């Protein structure tokens, strides 16, 4: 091949617009888009992409969409398996590539892969450039006055705003140069990313992975974003953006999200709804900031006092929680919705995490692992930050004495019981007064609704009052340990 090429390594940036690595590569005569499936259990694959069945399902469809978009512009996606360094070096030799471009990942495993690949390819004489493509600002650029990382969200958010969130957005490239037919890759179907069982068959009713799907979802949400502060906590309403999986896989960038909101609502930071939504974009940034500066928190408590907490880790409680069979209706509805859709409302995530870690005294890492296995937005920084926040073990954490009452949470955020009735249909005929705590209902009320506790629906696996007191006692015992 006589014309030099640049390899564009797609990873957590499965889009064409506002893609810094792709945009920079287009300065060369040819580009070769590549996606590399790393070996099972490798650093590159262990933090979400190949970890859970739900995220694998999404990846299959997102790669298919990316390849379709590339082909529509005259190019195509080369898919190969193997260690990234070896695959990139081999492809560079095949194509006479003179450079490799990619957008940086900021999870511990992604950082380790970046460093190793960059060093190896440069030692082989192949120029490498990495770019900031997944966040508004990278963690080393948002520090406090002492040059230290933020551990509390509100000052971090103010610092992020001071750094600037109105950032330029790169255009959608069109057309793209063709990839030589001599360069071969595997089919996406051959990767075996789709589950062998039928549990994910319903996902397509909820999701449209890919760049176009991300924008369809976002534009639909923008119609109601001004009411976001009122609807974002309601379990029974479609009041959130549901952009998290699209952002995780990089089908839309946070720069694009902010720019689109600000174009539609120039005073977005002064409006309750749009400001609340932009803060959620900031929370995603904060999660990446925490995991970058404190990589040990992927597996360890940030607050070391919690190393002394006597977790119970009752296996029966864990299984009941996973299967939505706890006997607490709002918990069971949320966990069943997760299994059926691959996603969970953020308010529900807090409720079920509080119940598991505090009422059941199950180690937050067990819950975090289940989420990483079952969420289509299995994003390691956000998941870790969220679980440590609820458990009280992390940065900006909820106080140890904050224990969500799932009955009150259900009554407040699913006031008509629509969410519970949808996902726990065996309770659908209960009146509202009995729906949120059926164990307190009169026997005749249960009988008229066809509910038999312990038979058609479980008895609660824990007593909420007693388990709350037990958690407070456990947390009180570790208060005096040195932070």
From TrEMBL:
Residues 4-136 form the Photolyase/cryptochrome alpha/beta domain. FAD binds at residues 228, 240-244, 277, 377-379. The record marks 311, 364, 387 as: Electron transfer via tryptophanyl radical. Its cofactor is (6R)-5,10-methylene-5,6,7,8-tetrahydrofolate; FAD. It comes from the Bacteria. Its EC number is 4.1.99.3. Keywords: Chromophore, FAD, Flavoprotein, Lyase. Signal peptide: none annotated. GO terms for molecular function: deoxyribodipyrimidine photo-lyase activity; DNA binding; FAD binding. It holds the Pfam family FAD_binding_7. This is Deoxyribodipyrimidine photo-lyase. GO terms for biological process: photoreactive repair; response to light stimulus. Belongs to the DNA photolyase class-1 family. Belongs to the DNA photolyase family. It catalyses: cyclobutadipyrimidine (in DNA) = 2 pyrimidine residues (in DNA). Involved in repair of UV radiation-induced DNA damage. Catalyzes the light-dependent monomerization (300-600 nm) of cyclobutyl pyrimidine dimers (in cis-syn configuration), which are formed between adjacent bases on the same DNA strand upon exposure to ultraviolet radiation. Binds 1 FAD per subunit. InterPro entries: Crypto/Photolyase_FAD-like_sf, Crypto/Photolyase_N_sf, Cryptochr/Photolyase_FAD-bd, Cryptochrome/DNA_photolyase_1, DNA_photolyase_1_CS_C, DNA_photolyase_N, Rossmann-like_a/b/a_fold.
